[in-house]
Design a protein that fits this description.
156 residues, alpha+beta, 28% strand, globular
């Protein structure tokens, strides 16, 4: 059991270091109590009735650039980022499917989806505002990349 915990801890540190190399750093404030329930956020991205806010065709020649641009437009519209570029990132590692939130800061402020994909090896991710009210995610579907926004305000 201790060996499995040590392996998980190593993978978490590896993921944090990879995010750091992409300019995404752990925020000093940690995860606030207002963070959305991780399962609710996950199902807001993958649930059966989920509809994308916007889509980017996967065959587009500049698909990565377009996903970056569209995601940032929707994240800005939703008020996702705090004053110092802080937000919550749904953090999971292989072998830990439940995951949880990590308070992070992005001082760069551009191309976040591409940088997260470079750090994690996965183009899908979920981000939420520090107050836990809004979410903006990228989901990779068969023909399109989906940008999904969701408000948790109605659930409270």
């Amino acid at each position: 059991m201790a060996e499995r915990d040590a392996d998980r801890d190593r993978r978490v540190l590896d993921r944090l270091e990879a995010l750091g190399r992409q300019g995404v750093v752990e925020a000093a404030g940690g995860v606030p109590e207002t963070a959305p329930d991780p399962k609710s956020a996950f199902y807001a991205m993958v649930g059966y009735e989920v509809k994308p806010t916007r889509t980017v065709p996967r065959k587009a020649p500049d698909v990565r650039d377009r996903v970056d641009l569209v995601w940032h437009e929707e994240a800005d519209r939703a008020g996702l980022f705090g004053e110092d570029g802080e937000f919550l990132l749904f953090f999971w590692i292989p072998g830990n499917p439940t995951g949880g939130w990590l308070g992070v800061r992005d001082p760069i402020g551009t191309r976040l989806p591409s940088r997260i994909a470079a750090a994690t090896g996965n183009r899908e991710f979920i981000a939420a505002s520090l107050d836990g009210r809004r979410m903006c995610a990228v989901s990779v579907e068969e023909y399109d990349d989906w940008i999904i926004t969701h408000s948790f305000e109605t659930a409270r």
